[in-house]
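Hey,
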Amino acid sequence: MSKRGLTKTDDKVLAAISLAMEQNQLAQVAVVALSDAKASSNLCRRLASRFQRANREALLVETLVDCHGGQQWHFDDISCHQAIEEHSSFDRLPSCSHQQHPVTREDLEHALLRLHQEYPVIVGDVGTLQSPDAEAFIAGFGAVVLVVSAGVDEEHSVNEAMQMFRCFELPVLAVVMEHGSNPRLGKQLAGSLRRRSWAKKLADWCENCNWMNGLRSSLG
C-alpha cells in the first residue's frame, strides 16, 4: 500500500488473508474499500503477487468499468478470457470499457468457474461499495476483504458494510485498516485551532512546521 499505509504490517496482513482463504477452502476473494478505490487496488495487487510467488497461478480481476478506454469484454462470454493480460507478477483481467447490461451474481459465478480452469486463485478488485454492481461482485466471489481508511471512514459505515455481508452470508476474511488517506498532523491541528480566534498564530505555525507535517494522525 502507500508508504504510510500497511508497509510495516503488509506481510502479516497478506499472510493472514492467505491463511483465512486456505482455512475456509476458498479459491477466490473480493476486496472492497469503503471509500478509497486505490487502497482496494493496491491490496489486490499485493495479494495476487503473494500467491504468484508461492507458485499459485493468480488472476486479478478488475471489476470497475473504465470510462476512458480499455477493451470491451463481458463476463457472460469468451471475451473475458481473451482480454486477460499476462504479466510476470500475476495475470490480469483489466477494467472493461463498458458492460452492456448489469452484471448478475450468476454471470460472475459462471465466469469464475471457467476462469478457475486456468487459475487456482482469483482476486477481485471491486473498488468501493459505491461502485456499479458492487453487491453482485461481492456476492459472486463468495468471500470479502474490507479496506477501511483511518480518519476518513466512520464507524457507522463499517457497521453497515458488515451488516450487508451478513445478509449475503459472506465470510469476512479480514478488515484492513489503511492509514494513507489521513491528513497531515500539522494541517489537522491548524484546522482545529483556526476555529478558535485566540489561536490563529499558533495555527499558522502548526501548518508550516516541517517536522510536524512529516507525521500523519488519525485525529478526527
